[in-house]
Amino acid sequence: MSEPKTPTPVPAGDTYKGWVFKWTNYIKGYQRRWFVLSNGLLSYYRTQAEMGHTCRGTINLATATITVDDACNFVISNGGAQTYHLKASCEVERQRWITALELAKAKAARMQAESDDSGDDFSPSSPPQAPGQGGGSQNTEVQSALRTLGSKVEDLSTCNDLISKHGSALQRSLSELDSLRLTGEAGDKIRQVTERATLFRITSNAMINACRDFLALAQAHSKRWQKALQAERDQRVRLEETLEQLAKQHNHLERAFRGAAQANATADNKSSAGPGKGEASDEDDDNEFFDAMEEAPEFITVPADPQFHKSLNEEPLAMNQESPSQELVPLKKRRTRIADKPNYSLNLWSIMKNCIGKELSKIPMPVNFNEPISMLQRLSEDLEYHELLDKASKCQSSLEQMCYVAAFSVSSYSTTVHRTGKPFNPLLGETYELDRRRESGYRSLCEQVSHHPPAAAHHAISDRGWTLRQEITVASKFRGKYLSIMPLGTIHAIFEKGNNHYTWKKVTTTVHNIIVGKLWIDQSGEIDVVNHTTGDRCHLKFAPYSYFSRDVARKVTGVVMDKDGKAHYVLSGTWDEKMEFSRVMQSSRGGENGTEGKQKTVYQTLKAREVWRRNPLPEGAESMYYFTDLALTLNEPEEGVAPTDSRRRPDQRLMEDGRWDEANSEKQRLEEKQRIARREREREAASQRTSTVDEDSLTDPSLKSAPHENYQALWFERCEDRITGEQVHIYKGGYWEAKDRGSFEGCPDIF
Q1: Cα distance between residue 690 and residue 201, in whole Å
Q2: CA 32 to CA 89: how far, in whole Å?
Q3: Is the four-CA dihedral 70, 72, 73, 76 of positive or negative sign?
Q4: Contact status, residue 33 vs residue 20, Cβ threshold 8 Å
Q5: Please, is 252 exposed, middle or buried when counting C-beta atoms within 10 Å of its C-beta (0-12, 13-18, 19+)?
Q6: What is the C-alpha to C-alpha distance for residues 729 and 469, in angstroms, rounded to an integer?
């Protein structure tokens, strides 16, 4: 399928860009690529969207040769391994490119030659003007800096003269004293002082000569330095202008894409009418480089018929009827900053090379890889956007309620986009309470109920009519280049109004570039949010990042259906920014053929409405582990919490305070203490088994495979979940009552 032809690019300043066909190999032949000529460099990308992150190749024109083969073909080579065989769509376009390339090559060669000479032709009083706005102010700043440097050089020259003058006077005075021919001790002292003065004069003369040489070099090269500084200023301005143009172009393309999607038939007509050579190549290119992880969208949304807008315009959704309660104000002012993250170096490969293929929870890691909160606190961060559940509890329709619950399931990932640090693995029996009842109407409790495999149970209850509970076991593998984190377990949300009971699971988190490059995080997989009371269902799809996808990064799409499979709402957005939902008025089969020849479902929807948007990060978050406002308060010390609370964990506290060496030592102490406690439980369990079985039963294989320890959680009890049938830990009560009494009897000594 062809695309609308892009306008022929026209040179703008020092930048020239457009589509050119590039020879790839004998199988694929010429493939269309997006070329950008800027600042003497010719770079190319598979698509315009790649310009922000993936450059496929760059050639420096200053040392390159440009030759023309025929009416449309031309070759660019730097004499080494880089040679581009290119073909324009017509002779006129080829000539435009040749002209732009020759001009850029001449300018690049001239700038390189000028950077190598002494810069005598440069006049400080008339520096080159930077292109674009702000050039005058930048030149003024440059001249001010140069005047300051010149003044300091003159001061140094004056100091040299003074040292020489006073040194000569001192030498003359000492010579006069020596001529008095004093005898005895006085004469010895005079000779000693004279010798020291002579040594000082020799040293001073050496320093004066060095300063004189420096002054001569500074004066000889000052113009060259001035010119180099101005060139850097000019280049920065050009880069800023290029970025601005790219941003505008990106917005234009995005609007054009959305317009094409909303006017499908018209766009198809225009595409078929335009020249198809380049566009067909680009389409074939996508088929050849199709990412195995990437899948075509399962459905298409188009605007509903205006009659639906007119008839239903007066029916506001629940999100407009109710807003989160503002009547409760915080009684405690919570902190907004923590100590900045220290910049400690660490040889990552020396630690990671022995960990490949191992379970992450079993690898002894220094705190350099951590962030100063535990997994229990990270689990409590799921409540960052609790107001979505507050709104859901007020919905009259279970289908609208499903939209808010689905958005809540997505919102928990928004805090992970920059969070590459690993939370502390909780110790067995460690707890964490988050009491926000007075501020936000809820309070939550987490407890580490198992160590191998690591499992945490979480229970939150709100005065606004909802309960959230989950037990999460994290399975993770280090694969050499990336780290896969697979949360196992089911999340439950129960609403008092209507007794609706929802469940869903979490998707896979992948941390890329573990060894080399900048760490970045992606979420991928599918979620089914199910209302077990009504049978409603929302299928959410987290699209994995792909170099070859033209779609927006971190995209999430979903459809809310009733028990009969009828679609009522469509959700779309990104897991790191926002989610919107649109009401479905009609649906039909017959969009473009999807994978394996299946037809996509086309949904006619009303105008999309925003259901969730990520809160902005606090100022200076990049130096505070990219914590959100809530995360900054999670480890804040509080009175009255249990002795097993994560806030009391010493290694985590030391890390937050920036004392990482002490934190590593304390972490090893705590882990060894936990191992000793586990071995003791295993001995007790073995002793109990020995005392309760007879000799004949020792041959029973089922008894030999019994658990090695008999640990029981303190605040949660293990039972079968009546909804999922899983063996889970459910809150049995007692914690908040113990806190009210100020007595936590029975809490283990884990710290």
Answers
A1: 92
A2: 10
A3: positive
A4: yes
A5: exposed
A6: 10
pLDDT at 52 over 80: no
Helix and strand tally (H, E) in the chain?
17, 27
Written as six digits, the tokens of 288 are 């050849």
Fold classification of 15-112 is: PH-domain like (2.30.29)
Tokens 């037809």 belong to residue? 599
Residue 71 DSSP symbol: S
Distance CA 429, CA 635 (A): 18
Task: Give the DSSP per-residue string, 100-161.
Answer: HHHHHHHHHHHHHHHHHS--TT--TTSPPPPSSTTHHHHHHHHHHHHHHHHHHHHHHHHHHH
**Given this model, what pLDDT does residue 109 score?**
78
Specify the 3-state DSSP secondary structure of 383: helix
495 within 8 A of 401, measured Cβ to Cβ: yes
Return the pLDDT at 10: 45
Q: Given a cut of 70, is residue 707 above it in pLDDT?
A: no
Q: Say if CB 446 and CB 373 are below 8 A apart.
A: no
Return d(Cα 449, Cα 455) in angstroms, integer: 6
Strand duo 555-561 + 466-478: pairing:
unpaired
Joined together, the tokens standing for residue 216 give 């001569």
Phi and psi, residue 70, nearest 5°: -150, -155
Q: Identify any residues that bridge with 537 across adjacent strands, giving them in sequence order.
A: 530, 561
More confident residue, 56 or 462: 462
Please give the Cα distance from 351 to 609 (Å, whole number). 48
430's tokens: 């460690």
pLDDT of 451 > 50? The answer is yes
What distance in Å separates the CA atoms of residue 108 and residue 127, rounded to the nearest whole number? 19
pLDDT tens digits, 646-692 = 999 999 999 999 999 899 899 989 989 998 998 988 888 888 777 66
Assign a CATH topology to domain 299-676.
Answer: Porin (2.40.160)
Percent with pLDDT over 90 in the chain? 39
Measured CA to CA, the distance from residue 48 to residue 52 in angstroms comes to 9
**Model confidence at 260, in pLDDT bands (50, 70, 90)?**
low
CB 721 within 8 A of CB 728: yes
Q: What are the structural domain ranges in the chain?
A: 15-112, 143-179+186-253, 299-676
Burial class (CB in 10 A: 0-12, 13-18, 19+), 499: exposed
* 3-state class (DSSP) for residue 167: helix
Cα–Cα dist 736/740, whole Å:
6
* Cβ neighbours of 389 (radius 10 Å): 25
CA 365, 370, 373, 374 torsion-angle sign: negative
- The CA-atom distances, in angstroms, between 355 and each of 1, 55, 477, 481, 669 are 47, 32, 9, 12, 21
pLDDT in the model for residue 287:
33
CA distances from 486 to 106, 282, 511, 521, 523 (A): 55, 36, 11, 13, 10
How far apart (Å, rounded) are the C-alpha atoms in residues 146 and 703?
Answer: 85
The confidence score (pLDDT) of residue 361 equals: 52
Is residue 103 scored above 50 in pLDDT?
A: yes
138 pLDDT exceeds 80? no
pLDDT per residue as tens digits for the range 568-604: 999 999 999 999 999 999 888 765 554 455 667 888 8
In this prediction, residues 240-266 reach a mean pLDDT of 69
How far is residue 543's CA from residue 172's CA, in Å, rounded to a whole number? Answer: 86
| Structure confidence at residue 482 (pLDDT) | 79
The pLDDT value recorded for residue 152 is 66
Q: How far is CA 616 from CA 204, 240, 373, 415, 619, in A?
A: 60, 25, 20, 10, 9
C-alpha neighbours within 13 Å on the C-beta side of residue 534: 21
Strand order in the sheet with 41-45: 57-60, 41-45, 29-38, 15-25, 83-87, 73-77, 65-68
